[in-house]
Amino acid sequence: SNSSAVLAFDLGASSGRALLGEITASDHDSPGILKITEIHRFANTPVQMGDHLHWNFPMLLQEVKHGIRKAFQDGYRPVSYGIDSWGVDYGLIDRNGELIGVPYHYRDLRTEGMVEETCKQVGRERLFQESGLQFMPFNTIFQLNAMVKAKSPMLDIADKFLLTPDLLNYFLTGVQACEFTMATTTQLYHVTEGKWNERLMDELGLPSSLFLEPVQPGSVIGRLQDAVAQELGVPAIKAIAVASHDTESAVVAVPANAARFAYLVCGTWSLLGTELPEPLVHPEVLEEDFSNEGGAYQSYQLLKNIMGLWILQECKRQWGNQGLKYSYAELVELAEDAESFRSLIHPDDLRFMNPADMTAEIRDYCLETGQPVPQSAGEYVQCILQSLALRYREVLERMEVLTGQSYDGLHMVGGGIQNELLCRYTANAMGRTVWAGPVEASAIGNMLVQFVANGTLRSREEGVELVKRSFPLAWYEPESSGDWEAAFLRYKSLIGQQQAQP
Ligand code: ADP
Ligand code: LRH
């Protein structure tokens, strides 16, 4: 078929997928449309091994290989592929080029206490100013410092550090590379100097020789190595370093009309942010705990990591283990029938990061804050969705203060927008419009960077126009209701009450 098709792998914390993208032009006068075809989709289930939580890395590599093979078996002829994934995680490679150990999952508990310890060591403000990042316990710096503190023998034999997409690309192409957007999620990248923070690495006892010079999204990493092409029975197609951090790929595909727009990348996590030409590292940004992540095309993304639909995923998983196998559609329906604003949580309370029992955690939170405890699945889901919507409003308003910009509405993208109730609630909570779409933003942004790199598209802007033509947007106008205003006040006093506690 199409001679300029590309293959995008988007690996999320809950699932991975391979999508084929081709631009179909019916004739010379009409502009093309981006057609995306799902080639492969698989669950991404972490594995607890002894005391630690890991990614099933060999499985992920196998699924990516399977996706490449299947694209060709289905009759497509992609000229390149690109991989994006969740941020911060990595593998270490020894001097013989082999993977050391099984890559850790960012929710592994070995980072407990590491934010405090690392900040004591190198200084909190300084760490923010140099990295521009929000303090998340799982940031790579804290994972690596946990290994240093544990005197991990793996560090002794490590020769190179590769972030997840780079690690997969290494086993596919034989080439070791470091892609820029992922590098900026480590907190070891100096965001204003625009290079690895070697001084910081020295102070933490991390050899700077582990880290490769970052390459920009759109760079060609190499080609499938012969052995892999033969194994899969496919040609040695090009590997392109896309904006390999999934959030940054998603941003490329936001179909915004304005130069300054607010977005919410809504999947396992909720990333609410806006694009800026420069990082913002003044003290208020530190105070508000926002991130400046490196994006594609020399952009910086000022955003906040919000716990997101992870909370719902965990409840769903737990109910499933108890034999109550709800679909998302069923859960949303139950929520809609449940009483509104009965109980609210602060989604970003760290207790929700990786509790053994998510419903118990929500229950305890409600008890401790003097609220009624949810009594049914519907009440739990209602509590989660309404609390998230209120959190989105709060973060959007704080972002407006930080940037001095105001936003008419919010672009929502990612798997979470299939939850129409959440989109509606978000519009209601904010009192602003939500434009939802596309669902597969990360995979689409991944494709756009490949199209530009391959010369199929001239620019990112052309890519955004293509997205606007190709995917319909769902509009959610706020329904006027004083209830949301009252709920927001309740939510804010809840957060205040929490912050007052030591
Ligand atoms: P990630 O890339 O982080 O794995 P996705 O972007 O795939 O996440 O989004 C996953 C989330 O999308 C799930 O947590 C779930 O809440 C939501 N979701 C997926 N399918 C549906 C659906 N059919 N209806 C409502 N919500 C859905
Ligand atoms: C979303 C995401 C987010 C990171 C988290 C680890 O998938 O990449 O931007 O902070 O995963």
Automatic annotation (TrEMBL):
InterPro entries: ATPase_NBD, FGGY_C, FGGY_N, Rhamnulokinase. Residues 262-453 form the Carbohydrate kinase FGGY C-terminal domain. GO terms for molecular function: ATP binding; glycerol kinase activity; rhamnulokinase activity. Gene3D superfamilies: 3.30.420.40. It holds the Pfam family FGGY_C. GO terms for biological process: glycerol metabolic process; rhamnose catabolic process. One of its GO terms (cellular component) is cytosol. The keyword rRNA-binding does not apply. It comes from the Bacteria. Belongs to the FGGY kinase family. This is Rhamnulokinase. It comes from Paenibacillus lautus. The lineage of its organism: Bacteria, Bacillati, Bacillota, Bacilli, Bacillales.
